[in-house]
TrEMBL record:
Domain SPX: 2-158
Keyword Transferase attached: no
Location relative to the cell: Membrane
Classification via InterPro entries: MFS, MFS_Domain-Containing_Protein, MFS_trans_sf, SPX_dom, SPXM_SPX_plant
Keyword Aminoacyl-tRNA synthetase in record: no
Keywords tagged on the record: Membrane, Transmembrane, Transmembrane helix
Record-annotated membrane-spanning stretches: 226-244, 256-279, 291-308, 314-333, 345-367, 387-405, 491-516, 522-542, 554-572, 578-603, 648-671
Positions with biased composition (Acidic residues): 452-466
Assigned protein family: Belongs to the major facilitator superfamily.
Pfam families named among the record's database cross-references: MFS_1
Annotated Gene Ontology cellular component terms: membrane
The protein, known as: SPX domain-containing membrane protein OsI_17046 isoform X2
Membrane topology category: Multi-pass membrane protein
Amino acid sequence: MVNFGKRLVADQIQEWKGYYINYKLMKKRVKQYVHQTQAGGQDHYQVLKEFSRMLDDQIEKIVLFLLEQQGLLASRLQKLGEQREILLEQPDISQVCQLREAYRAVGQDLLKLLRFTDYYVTTRANHPYSQLQQVFKHVGIGAVVGALSRNLADLDHQGSCLSIYDQPSIPLKDPVIEQINASVDRLTHSTNFLQFIGQHALIAQEDIPSAAEDIVDDHRYHFMSLLLNLANTFLYMVNTYIIVPTADDYSMSLGAAATVCGVIIGSMAVAQVFSSVYFSAWSNKSYFRPLVFSSIMLFMGNLLYALAYDLNSIAVLLIGRLLCGLGSARAVNRRYISDCVPLKIRLQASAGFVSASALGMACGPAIAGLLQTNFKLYLLTFNQNTLPGWVMAVAWIMYLFWLCISFKEPMHDTEEGHTALDADAGSMNNERLENGLLQPMLLSSGSKEKQDEDGDQDFDDSEEASEESRGPATSIASAYRLLTPSVKVQLLIYFMLKYAMEILLSESSVITTLYFSWSTSTVAIFLAILGLTVLPVNAIVGSYLTNMLEDRQILLASEIILLVGIILSFHVTRPYSVPQYVCSALITFVSAEVLEGVNLSLLSRVMSSRLARGTYNGGLLSTEAGTLARVVADGTITLAGYLGEDRLLNVTLLPSLLICLASIIATFFTYNTLY
């Protein structure tokens, strides 16, 4: 059996040699490009494009090679099947163990065939003329997996008089088979749209985990708990935007100016700046308790918001909104998905997080538009101003009850240590497999030595490994030090687009009432329509535009279109018409949505690996940047109100214009570093 395996490996190495020579030649060409770039001859973008063209020239050979390798694997399975027939007649425990390992070795080689680099595959897989389309028609792969599963199951049932087809249909729990299935699923179902939506959440998407990590994930994951986190995300976004159509009316009913709506809306964002940090830190120890605290704070905040009308107190109103902001558990929701959801569904969960946010953003104003009534019950008033508070208070009480009876607290570090330790003891071979897959597929123990023949060792891999081995950032300052200039520019872009969107949304009720005399219901419908554009726009960008254009091209184009939308929003002609306002608002909002998706997609790729996990992670930094933008924007609306409502529109748009121009200039300077 051992000699048989060695002979197969020797034959396969001969097949790899020609492709390895091409690999070495391309590697030397890349080194030449690097030297030219350092000398100022070519930029990084040109290097990437030329190297991609080199790979395109080889792709047909590579596809044919992959199909050939599938045939070789099938041939190996056929020969192993002959060995199995012999063992059925003359059972030998030691030979059965060797045969089982030989089948797993075939599975390991199949797994190697499924490993592709993210850039090359994702940019070419969906193109209609790409030869990589043949790779995804993996009928041969499915047949190999089926043969491996059946034979391994037969060996596990050695000595039984029943066939595996007579047994209940239970999936084979073999680590190699599970990893192959996960890899195939990753290639087949992780569409560009799903990836694009999922990257909005800035949740770590790792490669296929080890067997130990799979076991830990299975113990931590609980579907109802995930659903509760997504529900928390949805309700919080509803809570944020349900008051937008009526905030100006509410402030005037309490004796304040209509532009105080900026402070009312923004006070929730002010508190969220602080709550994001302590919730992120709290989630290191528990997920259940932060969610309970969040629900209680949001219930109390909405209760005070509703009671402020009868108490005739703007202070009570603002305290209620501050308490709502202190209950923002989005950092916990993000951490739960990142730490507790298995890798195979983490991308779907991340997309669910973003979709829940978008749906909440649309439902908030829509619900407000339905609450157009006015009556008193004892000493309490129920009208369009107070009903959003009452409705959300009831919603959070119901959520808290659901949370207490359905949430399952996952295991944390001290508990996981024992499980992971036991899993490691039984999966050492799989750990070696995963480590081996990180190296070039063509290298064996003998060919590794050839890699250094020309003295061209690469230190990038070791540097990345060293970077990943370090722990997460332990403070905001240490996280800031990990930010490269391109990441800082992308955070500036995120600040800019959130500022522009908040100005548009928060002052919409004041502006439309002033210029067009819109009712609360009309404003609510307008805002709901804007919110409903989020997912369709992202579907178009994720499924089509990202296949035709590079992310940085879409980024720059979106910034310019956003600038055009801001310019069109200025009141420079009389009268200020509804078509001008609606069209400019749509251009601004849609371009900001496209910009947000592309910006976070780029940010998730270039941000340091140390910011993927921990309290001070990339998601927290982006949340803080967006929240600060909302605080500044809402403060701008209130301050601009002192200059008069007739100047409100132009005064609040001017900072948006200047910040947008600054972000476009910064993007030009860092354009070649954005990939």
